[in-house]
Amino acid sequence: MTKVLRGGVIGAGVFGGYHARQYAQAEGAGLAAVFDPDLERAREVAARHGAAAFDDLDAFLSSVDVVTVASPGVRHAEGALASLRAGRSVYVEKPLAVDLEEADRILAEASRRRLVVACGHQERVVFEAIGLFSAPERPLRLEAVRQGPQSQRSLDISVVLDLMVHDIDLALSLAAGAPLAAEGEGDVAYSGGLDAVRAEVTFDDGFTAVFDASRMAPERRRTMRVVYPSGELEIDFLARTFRNTTGFDLNPDFAETPGARDPLGASVGAFLACVRGERDRPVVTGEEAARALDLALAIEQAVEETGPRHHL
By C-alpha distance, which of 124, 125, 223 is closest to 169? Predict the structure, then answer.
């Protein structure tokens, strides 16, 4: 009989709660434990699913088989490395880390111990459901908008690592070439860091990706326009619809597929299948997440060189 994997979640915030529920509902797994430095927060999330709560990381790691890191972004690497060193495969919410040295350490530790590292860029599941990865052409241009109103979530990281990194990963998943140059401008408002950024990235094969991310917008927007030699695809991630003039055989009913209905669940499920040896790779590998981080940091640097606008 296949062993039921004991899932553990590091971080008892909003995303920690989402991941706790995923383990509790996953086939062949269960939620065993939640860790948070604030024990009461850990208890609140754990109690919803009959799990144990810890504020001692070593004790937590000894009680689980696999780990999701859903702590604040600046602590993702710390939780991931501790889990890997304890012999636990790990699913890290995006971003994988906040600098490339941390990301390299995560990848090296996982490789050394032959463990799985997955990252939470679950929008890839939506692309798969639409059928974009089977498109017969490479895109010429991509324009992504990911905006929302002011929030107190993820203020430890910039809007680039918080929101834009999703679209950076999607652009990289479609691109044939490598990023060549990045330009950007941004705004600093309520978080003390970059709260709105507009960037353009050129690739060595001529592909161009334009990103617009904000957490100071009047309303939520999640759209993408992808231009191909044959036509265009316009996706509304919130309405879960697209307009297609390319002639590609894409799935207009993608929103009804199991993966697109629950991208996070599909992403976590793929991670667990990898741990069991039932699947070759997660939805997004640690290496792919590190590549998205690399470009995100290049965009941040481009904005800093331009000089972001400060709003009082």
Answer: 124
